[in-house]
Design goal:
Layout: H1 2-14, H2 17-42, H3 46-54, H4 58-73, H5 77-85, H6 92-109, H7 114-125, H8 131-141, H9 147-157, H10 163-166, H11 172-190, H12 194-200, H13 209-237, H14 244-261, H15 269-280, H16 285-314, H17 324-333, H18 336-340, H19 343-349, H20 353-374, H21 379-388, H22 391-416, H23 420-441, H24 444-459, H25 473-502, H26 517-540, H27 553-562, E1 581-585, E2 590-597, E3 600-604, E4 608-609, H28 614-626, E5 631-637, H29 642-647, E6 650-662, H30 674-685, E7 689-693, H31 699-713, H32 728-731, E8 736-740, E9 746-754, E10 761-769, H33 777-791, E11 796-803, H34 815-826, H35 833-841, E12 846-855, H36 860-872, H37 879-882
Parallel strand pairs: 3-5, 10-11
Antiparallel strand pairs: 1-2, 2-3, 2-4, 5-12, 6-11, 6-12, 7-8, 8-9, 9-10
Helix pairs in contact: 1-34, 2-15, 3-16, 3-25, 4-13, 4-16, 5-6, 5-13, 6-7, 6-16, 7-8, 9-11, 9-13, 9-14, 11-14, 13-14, 13-16, 14-15, 15-16, 16-20, 20-22, 20-23, 20-24, 20-25, 22-23, 22-26, 23-24, 25-26, 30-33
């Protein structure tokens, strides 16, 4: 048994292994770097570093910004290269713009270049470029982007730049430089092999030396220009001259450290290694920190800000929609290497690029406000501000800036999700934040930034259409933790920068303009409290909520009338239980029943109504759910409607099979049914009696059945959604079969569910029995039900689902279905999957598959756990049912 458990755990762990490694490797790398540099970091005065950065003359800022933007522009060589090699029908301006968006975003949030690759796929596909050609072009770039850094490493190791002087030969940085340098010859060897062609290129063709040479040249241009920008910033910020060779050696090893850390943008690894490098070349660590602040701002964040504006403008129209045909073509075009990284999911995430960009701009606006409040204003501006305004007003503006900053950070999520009220509040707060940050210290740069973002929001106002968004306790906890983290960072920055800058002020400076550490701490705590109070009020007073309290009595009566003219399905009777909500679509011609779990609306079974309107109804319901940022999942759907779900963007997972007994062929004769005949004869000899009762039922019978149900439950609570449960009004809607012993006592019962298909099918719904019933009681009950149904003119009898039956048996099945197969075989310790199928098989049923239809971008293992939780939670019905 332990071995079986271990196999299941090991199979489940394989689904998370890659994600876990992506977290552990960066964490270990950053931890190693911090551990080695902890002594050096203690001597850095970040207040002085920030002071040095802000003291740069305006003309130097312009030059450094120009050099940095030119370095970032060189990265577009990749895009011009694939435009020429693959003859992509793009204008030069479009090529440059797409390259800028992809490269700057990848600099900030990229993982091994995959973010940039996914963005290129999205942007280029928008120009109707065939997916197969796109994938070949992007796959061509993927292994080449690191070759330029490999060339730089070779330049350092060969002594052309003084890499050995800054980093000793025995250090781990030196070893990492060797590893990156060796990437170039290894790549040159393997790119000519058939294995490489199959892994990275779906067409199996080997790259020509000319194409490889072009790619290496583009990569080297990127890394070399970035290194030159790094050197130019260093020579401007540092008072002592720094040679290009020294700066390039520091940049090369720092870039290697950032690369192997696997952290987006090399944050942490790059910066700490660069600080160590500057110190080993004899530069003051505070000056080195100022260099890194300037480099991060001008090479990373300002270009990314420009890229976000480009992306927001690029997708300024209506919400981007992908055709299912295009989605399938893209997915078929991905080779094994790209599928291993789950690219289609990543492309689905960035499909809302315009809103995503606006959300990040709002997030940046909140961070800018907090950083501006945490760091002192420029002395000359403070002096002018005091002459025009009063210090209390300036301090009040600072406090309000903190509150607005925290609110914008939280509301940025609502902007990314296209929430209309989030847009309205954010627009108001952006304008208010611009006023407050200007009043507190004449910080016109931050004010202009906020007003630009506000203007972009206003231009995109039509895209904010959602009326609500699901908020779980986990999300509230995450945002609460994030804001507390912001408070801690704010306090850390404020405590260090204020003390550091005050020490370098002129003798005649008025320190009343600056907050003490205690005052800053009070400011941020008060700001956090007020911000969360405002957010709580907005949440509690939100005008539109998606209610999910089940179907009202009026709705259920409407369903009963609807079923007189329309066919139902095997799950239709459960809709009358009242725990599912109803959505009438296509002008009340189709009914969709659903329940909400977290950020999903789970539909039970197929929609009910005219088949020609089902696709329209599905689309209408998806739009309804989208207004609340919810995903639609269809649970236990039949094969007939799979093409409709596929056309509306769904993937499929086989849940199991339903056992349907064809009553015309059912018989107890024959050798294979010997055991069933024996059971039936034994119960008849012992004078057990089977009876099917029709509603209405008297209270005495209901009370008797209630005692049997309570004994069967053994103090467990009822389950719902796709399962029936003991509910007195629900029991009055269909016949009940009872099995009585010789003394006249009911020992077992089963509720029946009509199929609403003109008397063709009937199903068993709820089955309960006393704990001390004779062996074979359920067999007798099933046999009697089958004979009764056959005698009463039914054609089929539904025995219910066999979960995970016949799932994942084929070699080409999804890995999740293969895992489900292992659970089916070895999961008897938790649930008798295999035993349940064998039990139902003895009644000779036909097995009909049932599927889960879910949208792309939904992680299947998490979805399955949510479905288990949905079915296991206590059923809830509208209050009117309880009266």
């Amino acid at each position: 048994m332990r071995m079986r458990k271990w196999k299941i755990v090991r199979a489940a762990a394989s689904l998370y292994r890659i994600r876990l490694l992506r977290l552990l490797i960066p964490a270990a790398a950053i931890g190693l770097i911090f551990w080695e540099a902890q002594k050096e970091l203690r001597h850095i005065d970040f207040g002085r570093a920030l002071h040095l950065f802000r003291r740069l003359p305006f003309e130097d800022w312009i030059v450094l910004l120009g050099v940095s933007l030119a370095a970032v522009a060189s990265m577009s060589a990749y895009d011009f290269l694939i435009r020429r090699l693959y003859r992509l029908p793009l204008r030069l301006a479009d090529t440059f713009r797409y390259g800028w968006i992809a490269n700057t975003t990848n600099n900030i949030a990229g993982f091994a270049g995959l973010t940039g690759a996914g963005l290129r796929m999205l942007l280029y596909r928008n120009r109707q470029i065939p997916p197969e050609k796109l994938v070949r072009a992007v796959a061509y770039l993927s292994p080449l982007t690191m070759t330029g850094l490999s060339v730089l490493a070779w330049i350092g190791l060969l002594g052309i730049i003084p890499l050995r002087a800054g980093f000793p030969a025995h250090s781990w940085q030196f070893a990492a430089a060797w590893a990156v340098a060796l990437y170039l010859p290894v790549f040159a060897v393997f790119q000519r092999t058939s294995w490489f062609a199959k892994w990275f290129r779906r067409d199996g063709e080997r790259l020509s030396w000319r194409m490889i040479g072009y790619g290496i040249a583009a990569s080297f241009a990127e890394w070399a220009c970035a290194g030159i920008a790094f050197w130019w910033i260093a020579r401007t910020v540092l008072p002592a001259p720094v040679s290009m060779g020294n700066a390039l050696s520091i940049y090369t090893v720092s870039a290697v450290a950032g690369l192997i850390s696997l952290v987006p943008g090399g944050i942490g690894g790059f910066d700490i290694t660069a600080l160590l490098g500057f110190q080993r070349f004899g530069f003051d660590p505070n000056l080195a920190a100022a260099v890194l602040i300037t480099f991060r701002l001008f090479y990373y964040f300002v270009p990314w800000f420009i890229g976000l504006i480009m992306a927001a403008v690029e997708f300024s129209g209506n919400r981007y929609q992908r055709e299912e045909k295009e989605e399938t073509e893209d997915e078929n075009a991905f080779n094994a290497w790209q599928r291993w990284w789950n690219w289609p999911g990543r492309i689905g995430v960035i499909g809302e690029l315009g809103a995503w960009s606006l959300g990040k701009l709002v997030f940046l606006s909140g961070i800018v406000l907090l950083l501006s409040a945490a760091t002192p204003g420029l002395w000359r501006r403070l002096h002018v501000a005091e002459e025009i305004l009063s210090i209390p007003l300036m301090r009040l503006s600072l406090q309000l800036s903190v509150i607005v900053g925290i609110l914008l950070v939280v509301l940025s999520r609502g902007i990314s999700l296209r929430i209309k009220r989030a847009y309205q509040w954010t627009l108001l707060l952006m304008v208010a934040g611009a006023i407050f940050t200007f009043v507190k210290a004449f910080d016109f740069e931050e004010a202009i930034f906020l007003l630009i973002v506000a203007f972009l929001l206003w231009l995109s106002r039509e895209r904010f259409y959602r009326v609500g968004v699901p908020v779980s306790r986990e999300q509230i906890a995450k945002w609460g933790l994030a804001t507390f983290l912001l408070v801690w960072i704010y306090d850390l920055i404020a405590a260090n920068t204020h003390a550091g800058i005050i020490r370098h002020l002129p003798p005649n400076a008025n320190i009343r303009w600056f907050f003490t550490p205690q005052e800053q701490r009070i400011t941020i705590i008060l700001g956090l409290g007020i911000a969360w109070l405002i957010l709580s009020m907005l949440w509690m007073l939100r005008p539109v909520r998606l209610e999910d309290h089940g179907a009202s009595l009026e709705q259920r009566r409407k369903l009963q009338a609807f079923l007189k003219d329309h066919r139902g399905n095997l799950l239709t009777h459960m809709l009358l239980a009242g725990d599912k909500s109803f959505y009438w679509a296509a002008d009340d011609q189709v009914l969709i029943s659903y329940a909400k779990i977290r950020n999903k609306l789970v539909v039970l079974g197929d929609p009910i109504g005219e088949p020609e309107f089902v696709s329209i109804a599905v689309q209408e319901f998806q739009r309804y759910a989208d207004q609340y940022a919810l995903k639609v999942v269809f649970y236990q759907v039949a094969p007939e409607y799979l093409p409709i779900y596929h056309e509306n963007g769904c993937r499929f997972f086989k849940l199991g099979e339903e056992a349907i007994v064809p009553l015309s062929a059912f018989t107890l004769s024959g050798k294979r049914n010997t055991n069933l005949r024996t059971v039936k004869n034994r119960f008849e000899r012992e004078e057990f009696r089977f009876e099917v009762l029709s509603p209405p039922f008297d209270s005495a019978l209901i009370e008797t059945l209630g005692r049997i149900s309570a004994a069967w439950l053994k103090k467990r609570h009822e389950k719902g959604f796709s399962l029936g449960w003991f509910d007195k009004p629900y029991l009055q809607l269909a016949p009940i079969a009872t099995l009585t012993d010789g003394a006249g006592n009911i020992i077992a019962f089963a509720t029946l569910a009509p199929g609403y298909d003109e008397g063709t099918t009937i199903s068993v719904d709820l089955m309960r029995h006393l704990p001390d019933t004779p062996n074979g009681t359920m067999d007798m009950l099933f046999l009697s039900l089958l004979e009764w149904a056959k005698q009463n003119g039914y054609d089929r009898f539904n025995l219910g689902m066999a979960p995970l039956s016949s799932v994942g048996q084929r070699q080409g099945a999804m890995r999740e279905e293969k895992l489900a197969r292992i659970v089916f075989q070895y999961g008897g310790y938790w649930y008798g999957f295999e035993g349940l199928r064998k039990y139902k098989q003895k009644f000779s049923p036909d097995w009909e598959p049932r599927y889960l239809a879910y949208p792309r971008g939904v992680y299947l293992p998490t979805l399955l756990l949510e479905l288990v939780r949905l079915i296991s939670r206590r059923p809830k019905v509208p209050a009117e049912r309880k009266s």
